[in-house]
Amino acid sequence: MGEDLSKRISEIVPKFLETYDLVHEWEEFGLFERASKSLLHDSGKIDKFLNIPDPRFNSISWARDVDWLIDQVYFSFYWMDAFAKYFEEKHDSSKGPYGDYWPASYYADNCMLGIYSCRDKIALMVWAFYCPFDITKKEEVLDFHKIMKRLNHPVKYAIKADDSQEFWNALNGLNDSVFNKEIAEYRHKKIHRREPKIIMGPIENCHFRDYTFPVLDPNEEEEWKNQMKAKGDSPQVIESVMRNSVFDGVMYRRKSVNDLLVSYSDVKDQIERAFKKTLKVAVTCFDILDSRLFPK
Questions:
Q1: Distance between the two ends of the chain, CA-based, in angstroms?
Q2: Which of 33, 77, 200, 290 matches a 20 to 30 Å C-alpha distance to 54?
Q3: What are the residue boundaries of the Cthe-2314-like HEPN domain, all occurrences included (predicted)?
């Protein structure tokens, strides 16, 4: 087993490095590296003043969180793509349809959740520039949409943020369907304990595992019978199925939950588009912070 694992790793690492090189060619990568180094280098000027009274500098702590989280997404993206390439290379389509491949799914999962979290962190970085909030109090740590409302209507929320429009315009680049629909739907399933199943190929011919459901609506019972009729089941078979599906006076049926199936190609596309947007917005917000906290 050790030899097999060693062989697999030796085949996967070159694919990791291939993706690493491709990502480093992204324009967004270069811009973020420049903006991050500039802001965090300038922030070193205040490190010796640990009790600096200006609360705006708390935004630097959040900037470091953003930088740290983006590194995690990079790392996960490299491995996700490497494992996916390895799977594609080794998959024998003659042995059946594509299925899931947990190493690629694991890192795709990290990317999806990390990118969504990074959007909140960038917004909190900006929010810290205007509002000295207590990170230990859950109600004071706002999410992206709540921060956007406050930055867009500072007077309504009694906030002194006359110069917030530039930040708001930048953050609004993350307020689109890529985040609010695609990434949010994936995250929504995760936090509600409905695990998305990433399929490495087309999902049309894939059948997800079945779950048991109570049949409480007479219309659903009739629909079930009609489905069996459409498949060619005889009245005797249908009657037998219905009779044997009752337990303790309640009818149950097994059904697949195919809305949990997602194609890897779709997930990768969503991750790449969302990540590039995240990097672009982070660059703009880092640059604005740098110019306001450390005017040259």
A1: 58
A2: 33
A3: 62-202
> Which structural domain, as residue segments, surrounds residue 76?
2-204+260-293
Q: In this structure, are 197 and 101 located in the same domain?
A: yes
Q: Are 14 and 124 in a shared domain? A: yes
In angstroms, the CA 191 to CA 211 distance is 19
Q: Do 137 and 255 meet the contact criterion of CB atoms below 8 Å apart?
A: no
Residue 47 has phi, psi (to 5 degrees) of -60, -30
The answer on 246 and 198 residing in a single domain is: no
Both 20 and 164 in one domain: the answer is: yes
Q: Model confidence over 53-101: pLDDT tens digits?
A: 688 888 999 999 999 999 999 999 999 999 999 998 988 766 666 778 8
Q: What is the pTM of this model?
A: 0.86
Q: Could you give the CA distance from residue 70 to residue 283 in angstroms, rounded to a whole number?
A: 12
- Mean per-residue pLDDT for 266-277? 97
In terms of pLDDT, which residue wins out, 102 or 99? 102
CA distances from 151 to 11, 57, 164, 242, 278 (A): 49, 18, 6, 58, 19
Secondary element (H or E) of residue 253:
strand 250-256
Q: Are residues 129 and 216 in the same domain?
A: no
Regarding whether 141 and 16 lie in a shared domain, the answer is yes
Q: What is the pLDDT of residue 134?
A: 86
- Contact call for residues 127 and 147 (beta carbons, < 8 A): yes
Cα dihedral 262/264/265/269 (nearest 10): 90
Using the structure block, give the residue that is written with the tokens 């003043």: 49
- Residues 266, 152 share a domain: yes
pLDDT-based confidence at residue 275 (cuts at 50, 70, 90): very high
CA dist., res. 51 & res. 46, Å (int):
9
User: Is the domain of 114 the same as that of 159?
Assistant: yes
